[in-house]
Amino acid sequence: MWFERIVAGGLSHNSYMIGSGGIAAVIDPWRDCEAYLGFADRHDAVITHIFETHRNEDYVSGALNLARLCNAPIYHGSRMDFAYGKNRERVGHIPGSAHVYIGELPQHIPEIPKDRPVITYRDSGYKGSLAASVLAMHGFTDTTNVLGGMQAWVSAGYPVEH
């Protein structure tokens, strides 16, 4: 596994790349997409995911341009008002599931039953593992994170609600 921090000179902006096994994700890309393509080449990887973690009003995001260059989907949280990318409404969700934003999970712990299995997931998986860790820290012993998130769930042909 590898991790790169990319600093945009003069913009006070950091973006990140993480990769393993020939695939990579870019987090909060800025406009200079060649930098990400260069890092992917150096690590013999293909960019397969793009994440926007928040809106950036002080620079133009490179997510759309990078998505076109790599044919990679853009993911962002359901609370962000973007006209592009994937979120819970567009991707769908596991039937009967409850959506709890990861930042609000600790305040919802008392609502989650400890006497049955709890499955965590997100659109692409990484926040699902964070949720599983938070639950474990609060004494949950039967938690499972869906590796690959909702994207893997859909690819496996399991039911989806929109």
Could you explain how this protein is built, in words?
The protein has 162 residues and is an alpha/beta fold. The protein folds into two domains: 2-85, Ribonuclease Z/Hydroxyacylglutathione hydrolase-like (Metallo-beta-lactamase, Chain A, 4-Layer Sandwich); 90-155, 3-Layer(aba) Sandwich (Oxidized Rhodanese, domain 1). It has helices spanning 33-42, 63-70, 88-91, 105-108, 126-137, 149-155; strands at 2-8, 13-20, 23-27, 46-52, 74-76, 118-120, 143-145. It has a five-stranded mixed sheet with strand order 1-2-3-4-5, covered by helices on one side. A two-stranded parallel sheet has the order 6-7. The protein is elongated and about 50 Å long.
Give a brief outline of the structure.
The chain has about 160 residues and is an alpha/beta fold. It has helices spanning about 35-40, 65-70, 90, 105-110, 125-135, 150-155, and strands spanning about 1-10, 15-20, 25, 45-50, 75, 120, 145.
